[in-house]
Write a structure and sequence with these properties.
Elements lengths: L26 E6 L7 H14 L3 E5 L2 H7 L2 E3 L27 H13 L4 E6 L1 H13 L3 E6 L15 H22 L2 E6 L6 H10 L3 E3 L6 H17 L2 E6 L6 H12 L5 E5 L11 H19 L5 E6 L2 E6 H6 L6 H10 L2
Parallel strand pairs: 1-2, 1-4, 4-5, 5-10, 6-8, 6-9, 7-8
Antiparallel strand pairs: 2-3, 10-11
Helix pairs in contact: 1-9, 2-3, 5-6
Bound molecules: adenosine-5'-triphosphate.
Length: about 350
């Protein structure tokens, strides 16, 4: 899909029987929800400006669903989103809201949207945020369109989520530095990266850094690879090593794993580095900005086309629309071939 043609809303077409017109869209809301991801600001900017270009008013909803419940709204004009495309985090802030999970919380949110005259909403977040949007749109007459924003890249129906590429590059930069000290001292580093349920960030950063072993929740057989490396690989040639551990690989993460390895191999110098929230921050990469911009424009396009409960995604470079119920229920496919490549190259 390309940039939408500007629409004259007074020309909104009548339905087939010629009697009823589609509900006219006047004001949209936009918010960010769940974990922050670099590139969310680029998406807010694109949504705001595409909406204004199509003669819509825009309201920014601050602090995710909690802000929606509390009516924490600000008007967004074109100048309000100026100079934010390069910023990490989200100018609208984000939150996780327990109250929104309750019918009472969603009723309050609905009232606030009604009071503010908001006809439809763009939600930028992960699958939890889309589940919330789907639930509310089934209870109340309000359209939501989603933009996938999460560093995990774990959402079905899109090759790409905003923030993933920036986070991947942050991990690669950090591990390259850790490698310098690992080689100098002959140490093994267990580097824990984010990914409670999805190991894509761990897998791809491990490939990009030439990690000796990559442990991810999707493949338990990788623990055999770790054993082989500790028993033979390290002594035979490596003298140091990087083991990338996705935080969801096993309870206790890299710290627990290092403790176990030290018990079995007291002769090895094993260290742990947990990259933590550094992975979420920073200026978004060019691709994160471009894709956030494309998806932001496509989200406004979809609302103008009277779409509801869909996520905008990117599939083979093309913008696609994925129903929320598929995006939240199906699993993002895991690239087993990449794991095989990593194993083959670590001879
Ligand atoms: P990330 O991938 O970064 O964690 P996310 O959008 O999946 O992002 P969640 O914390 O799972 O993050 O969800 C964000 C918010 O969406 C929750 O705090 C809650 O307010 C709302 N939400 C999630 N699941 C539901 C649900 N089943 N019903 C209603 N609201 C929900």
């Amino acid at each position: 899909m390309t940039i939408s043609a500007m629409r004259d809303l007074s020309m909104t077409p009548a339905t087939e029987n010629g009697l009823r017109r589609k509900p006219i869209l006047r004001k949209i809301g936009v918010f960010t929800s769940g974990g922050d991801a670099p590139g969310m600001n680029a998406a807010i900017r694109a949504v705001t400006r595409a909406a204004i270009a199509n003669k819509l008013k825009v309201t920014g909803i601050r602090r995710g669903y909690q802000g929606m419940i509390e009516g924490d709204f600000i008007p967004l004009r074109s100048s309000d989103v100026s100079g934010i495309i390069q910023l990490g985090g989200t100018i609208l802030r984000t939150a996780r809201s327990k109250e929104f999970r309750t019918p009472e919380g969603r009723e309050k949110a609905w009232q606030q949207l009604q009071n503010a005259g908001i006809d439809a909403v763009v939600v930028i977040g992960g699958d939890g945020s889309f589940t919330g949007a789907l639930t509310m749109s089934q209870e109340y007459n309000i359209s939501f369109v989603g933009i996938p924003g999460t560093i995990d890249n774990d959402i079905y129906g899109t090759d790409y989520t905003i923030g993933y590429e920036t986070a991947l590059n942050s991990v690669v930069c950090a591990v390259d530095k850790i490698r310098d000290t690992a080689v100098s001292h002959g140490r093994i580093f267990m580097v824990e990266v984010m990914g409670r349920e999805a190991g894509l960030l761990a897998l791809n950063s491990g490939i990009a850094c030439g990690a000796e072993v990559i442990l991810i929740p999707e493949s338990k057989e990788q623990h055999d690879a770790l054993k082989r490396f500790l028993d033979k690989g390290y002594k035979r040639k490596e003298r140091s090593g990087i083991v990338i551990v996705a935080e969801g690989d096993e309870p206790g993460g890299a710290l627990k794993l290092a403790e176990n390895v030290r018990c079995e191999h007291p002769e090895l110098d094993v260290r742990v580095s947990i990259l933590g929230h550094i992975q979420r921050g920073g200026s978004p990469t060019a691709n994160d900005r471009i894709n956030a911009t494309r998806m932001g424009v496509a989200a406004v396009d979809a609302l103008l086309d009277d779409q509801k409960s869909i996520m905008i995604g990117i599939d083979n470079g093309r913008i696609v629309q994925v129903p929320f119920n598929k995006a939240v229920k199906l699993n993002h496919s895991f690239d087993r071939e990449l794991l095989e490549i990593q194993k083959m190259l670590n001879i």
